[in-house]
Amino acid sequence: MALKIEMLRSFCVVAQTGSLAEAADRLGRSQSAVSMTLKQLEAHLGKPLFAGERKNRLSQLGEQVFELAARQVRQFDETVQSIEAVASADQGLIRIVSVPSVAALIFPQVLAHMTRRFPGLKIELRDTDSQQVLDALVEGKADLGIASGRHALNGITAQPLFRDRFGLVCATQHPLNRQARPPTIDDVVTESFLHNALCDMIETLRFRQAIESADITIHNTHSLIAMIRTGHWVSVLPETVAQFLPGATAFRPISDLPDRRDVYLYIRENARFRDETQDCAGFILSPAFKWPA
């Protein structure tokens, strides 16, 4: 028996809810049908996916299968959505994925330009981290991508957009923002420092050594800023992000941190709607955009 995506979907929903009844309700199937699907999956694998008869605790194998299955179900659903979007896009479709800090800069301008140039064009905009931007391009789920750093990708052209410096982000009333002299790495990387994924792009050895002792990592930028606004925490982010900081937060350069983030536009060469994609890329690369110095 071959594994089917709906078998993996049923397993994932049961694993998430811990209940056959709740899973059946979410899936729009009978409880007995969901139970039978799970039995077929376990029979195929030859081992149980749950510990005991109840479905509220995964076996060791179940935990591993859940991680893999959830990823495949998500990718399958995204692929279906993309196929349906392309099929219904009589006037064309362009899909743009960007890191959040740059998405806030380009999306309003891109929408205004593309809707004016191509009436009826379908546009999909999504913001996510750099790795997922690259994944979307490679997997054919995006036509244009904006990501931090330059990466060699087959069939995808990379064009530099801008560079911005890294610096301290803290509450306006934080002592490091109020002091007269610029902060140093030693000032910033203290017990109140919050590590984030963009910090890993910094190559200055002193900084890299200092953040090895960081106890807290926050991946979501909104959550990171919320913590910083309390006045108890600080972090390091590119200056572009600072343009969208809410009130009571500030950005300051760090005197002994010279690193810059390079931001690139990635263009998929075999995009289905090539003219629209190239037009959009040309607009983003044109002098009409005022990128950070």
Structural account:
By secondary structure, this protein is of the alpha/beta class. The N and C termini lie far apart (59 Å). Strands 1, 2, 3, 4, 5, 6 and 7 form a 7-stranded mixed beta sheet that branches. It folds into 3 domains: 81 residues, Arc Repressor Mutant, subunit A (Orthogonal Bundle), CATH 1.10.10; 95 residues, 3-Layer(aba) Sandwich (D-Maltodextrin-Binding Protein, domain 2); 97 residues, 3-Layer(aba) Sandwich (D-Maltodextrin-Binding Protein, domain 2), CATH 3.40.190.10. The protein is built from 12 helices and 7 strands. Helix 1 crosses helix 3 and helix 5 packs across helix 12. The longest helix has 28 residues. Helix 5 links the parallel strand 1 and strand 2.
Quick one: how many beta strands? Answer: 7
The CATH superfamily of the largest domain turns out to be Periplasmic binding protein-like II
Taking all Cα atoms into account, the compactness measure Rg is: 23 Å
How many structural domains can be distinguished in the coordinates?
3
Distance between the termini: 59 Å
How can the largest sheet be summarized? 7 strands, mixed
Order of helices and strands: HHHHEHEHEEHHHHEHEEH
Examine the coordinates and then state which fold CATH places here, giving the name of the CATH topology of the largest domain: D-Maltodextrin-Binding Protein, domain 2
Assigned CATH class of the largest domain:
Alpha Beta
Helix content: 40-55%
